[in-house]
Amino acid sequence: MNIIINFEPFNPTINDIVIKLAMVLFIPLFLALFVKVILMKFMIVGTNFIVYNIKLPTKVDTS
Predict the structure, then answer these.
(1) Dihedral of the CA atoms 10, 12, 16, 19 (nearest 10)?
(2) Helical ranges in 1-63 per DSSP H
(3) How far apart are CA 41 and CA 37, in angstroms?
(4) pTM for the predicted model, two decimal places
(5) How many CA atoms lie within 13 A of 60 on its CB side?
(6) pLDDT tens digits, residue range 10-25?
(7) Tens of pLDDT, residues 27-40
C-alpha cells in the first residue's frame, strides 16, 4: 500500500508573515534568557562576595 503525502508550500506572503512572527517572538525570548543567565551569575557572585566578607565582632567593648 502506497501512501503519498503532498506538502504543498504555503503562499510566499504567509511564509514571510510566519518568519517575521517567529523572529518577533523568539529572538526577544532568547535575548531575555541570555540576559537573565548573565545577571544571575553576577548576582550569585555579588552575594557570595558580600556574605564572605562580613566580619562579626568577637568582643564587645563595654567601657
Answers:
(1) 40
(2) 12-52
(3) 6
(4) 0.45
(5) 1
(6) 777 877 888 899 899 9
(7) 999 999 999 888 88
